[in-house]
C-alpha cells in the first residue's frame, strides 16, 4: 500500500475520527484510487498540434461510465469526476438483507451502454461481494464485457475479492486495503465500521 493511502486510511479506520475528518480522508483516498484507476485504462498514441509544433501524446480509447452503488458509492463520485468529468453516471441500488447479508436489487438507472464502454464501479466497502457480483451480472445483461469492468473499493475482505474473481475472473479490482476477514455480521475486520453511517453522519 502506498504511504499516501495508508496515512488517510488510518484516519478512516480510527474510531475517534469524526464525520468531517472522515469525509475529508475518504475523498482523498478516493482521489488516490481514481489516479490508480486512470493508470489501468487502455490508451493509444496520438499526434497533436501544440500552438508551436506537432508532438505525440496519449488518449483514452474507451468512453467511461461511472457506476456508484448506493448509497456509499456516491461518496467516491466527486474524486472520480475530477479525473473523468465527462463520464455519464449510472446508479445501482442494492439492499443487503440484515439476516442473510444477501444483496437485492431495488433500483438501477443506466445511461445508454455499448460493449465499447469502460465501466468503473464504485463501492467503498467490498465485504461479501454479493452487491458487486449482482452489479457486474446486471451490466453483463446490458452487453458490457467483463474485461471492461473495473471495481474500485477502499477496504475489501478476502471473501469479497474471491467472490468477484471466481464469478468474473477478468474484472479488475482496485482497492486501497485487503483486510483480514468478515465477522459474523459480515462487517470487515479490522475495517472501519459502517462506512455509510460514518460518512453521511447517520450513526446512532
Ligand atoms: N459495509 C460497511 O460499511 N462496512 C463493512 O465493514 C462492511 C460493509
Would you mind describing this structure in some detail?
With 204 residues, the chain is α/β, with parallel strands linked by helices. The protein has a single domain (3-200), classed as Rossmann fold. Helix content is 33%, strand content 29%. It is built from six helices and eleven strands. Strands 3, 4, 5, 6, 7, 8 and 9 form a seven-stranded mixed β-sheet that branches. A two-stranded antiparallel ribbon has the order 1-2. Strands 10-11 form a two-stranded antiparallel sheet. Helix 5 (158-167) links the parallel strand 8 and strand 9 (172-178). Helix 1 runs antiparallel to helix 2 (19-40) and helix 2 (19-40) packs parallel to helix 3. The longest helix is centred in the N-terminal third of the chain and has 22 residues, at 19-40. The radius of gyration is 18 Å and the shape is globular. 34% of the residues are buried. The mean pLDDT is 96. It binds uracil (URA).
